[in-house]
Amino acid sequence: MREKVVIAIDIGTQSLRSAVVTQAGEILGIAQIPHDTDEPHPGWAQQRPAQWWEETCRATVQVLRETGIAPESIAAVACCGQMHGPVGVDATGDVTTEWVQLWCDKRCAPQVASIRAAQDESALMAQAGNPLNPAWTGIKIRWEKENHPESYGETRFYLVPKDFINYRLTGIAAADPSEASCSYVYDCTMDSYSPGLANALGVDIDKFAPVHPSHGVIGKVTESAGRLTGIPAGTPVVAGGGDFPVSMLGFGIVGHGVLADVTGTSSLLAAHSAKALIDPGIQNCRHVVQGWVPFTILDCGGICMKWCKDLMSSVAGEMSYDTLIERARQVPPGGDGLVFYPYMRGERRSANINAKGAFFGITLEHQSGHFVRAIMEGVALAIGKDAGVFHKLGLDTSRVLSVGGGTRNPLWNEIKAGVLGRPLAISPEPEAGLKGCGLLGAAGVGLIDDPAAEAIARCASSQVFEASSDDIAAYAALQPEFDRVYEHMLGFWQDRKA
Predict the structure, then answer these.
(1) Measured between alpha carbons, how far is residue 97 from residues 154, 164, 169, 198 in Å?
(2) Residues 339, 341, 344, CA angle at the centre, nearest 5°?
(3) Distance between CA 27 and CA 7 in Å, rounded?
(4) Of 433, 93, 410, 424, nearest to 244 (Cα)?
(5) Neighbours of 37 (CB within 10 A)
(6) How far is CA 226 from CA 11, 77, 132, 444, in A?
């Protein structure tokens, strides 16, 4: 029998990609179309949904042609995408929002302030599972209501990017738990939309699409969509999920006890929990399998090393990362008392949005290697601080998986293993989002039974880093000191402009 495949579509911030993924998880081909972000004002970031659909059609036709896949072998379609961007569609399916606010758009900060002034944020957080911030879909929709009331009135549904593509494929408006949970109108204790939260935000709850399981089939490809994409009409389409939790599935970050360090430009710490972890410093979204993904984001993660390289090079001539790492290796754990606080782009938690970075404990004995090591340790200790919050809230983790560009720095991996006090396994998977889509699509049509179990079975690590008992002890002593100074810094910058 011919092996079945899933068409995986990823609507990213910088490009749209369509891929053919076998039921065994092999990617046979990828077609990618780059696109730009429009930033007409400071803090704004927007794109046109019509462009996403046009790119979906082009990329899918291209990848089907290049792979030569037989139409009858296509079992399902699964999408993931950049999260939180509300695309308005009216009752006839026409787009009511020519430009869509992206996940990183901050224009609705005044709406956040208004909601915070009128509501008890701690009570909202206990329901929504998250602190207030401009990222959430429902708050962006509040901005649309206040700034484009006519468009808001015409809108039947607000759909996030992957749900909009699903709508174009099937004609059916549907959401999944991972995106619905980030709307701020979703009750994490009831696992459903909340009229009370919608009222607190001042938006209409019936403008949010019905929620289906991420691997659940929401409809089938229509005749018109099939002609445009090359996907046979009648092919099942699953609900899919946000790109972040779908990537977590693709990486194998599922199941009890797993902790993920994702270090690229930023650093993200995530876990898989049975329930949302309620804390001002933690954000939560439903996983695309059972359970939740509590996570923290450090906006200056991997980019701290680039800043360090640029700074050192400006003083002493061009330096390579290898040179910097070698200098840092000459310094003992703890940097002889020099500690770095990597909050140079602020923090996501409301008490520290305008935070700045800092070196603490500088003495006349500190040299360049100390500063390089302190930067790596500072990012690791910030991650360790957040891991400590997870632990205090009852989440035990025994396995750490590290992914992203930061894994190419072996010393940093050793430092993180020392701070976290357990081995650090490096994931070699470069296409977790597309493979996560493949798992969801395969599960939706019965090609696999359990996407979570299958993700764990397919998870591989290329290398494991371990710290010595002496290093673990040194970082265990340093972590409380890092946390103590951090607590004193909370709110320090709030009266100052970012």
Answers:
(1) 10, 12, 19, 20
(2) 145
(3) 10
(4) 433
(5) 13
(6) 19, 12, 40, 19
Question: Tens digits of per-residue pLDDT, 170-228?
Answer: 999 999 999 999 999 999 999 999 999 999 999 999 999 999 999 999 999 999 999 99
346: its two tokens:
């602020």
CB 12, CB 243: distance < 8 Å:
yes
The closest of 459, 431, 440, 433 to 6, measured between CA atoms, is 440
Among 5-9, 262-266, 302-306, which stretch is predicted with the lowest mean pLDDT? 262-266
CA 23 vs CA 65, 78, 436, 469: distances in Å: 19, 12, 11, 43
C-alpha distances out from residue 9 to 32, 163, 454, Å: 10, 11, 20
- Residue reference for tokens 């993200």: 268
pLDDT tens digits, one per residue of 281-339? 899 999 999 999 999 988 888 889 999 999 999 988 999 999 999 999 999 999 999 99
DSSP H stretches of helix in 68-154: 109-118, 121-128, 137-147, 149-154
Angle between the 137-147 and 109-118 helix axes, to the nearest 10 degrees?
Answer: 100
Q: What is the DSSP letter of 300?
A: S
Distance CA 348, CA 282 (A): 9
- For the chain, domains (ranges, CATH) are 5-245 (3.30.420.40), 253-426+468-498 (3.30.420.40)
> Token digits for 256?
């009890």
Its pTM surpasses 0.85: yes
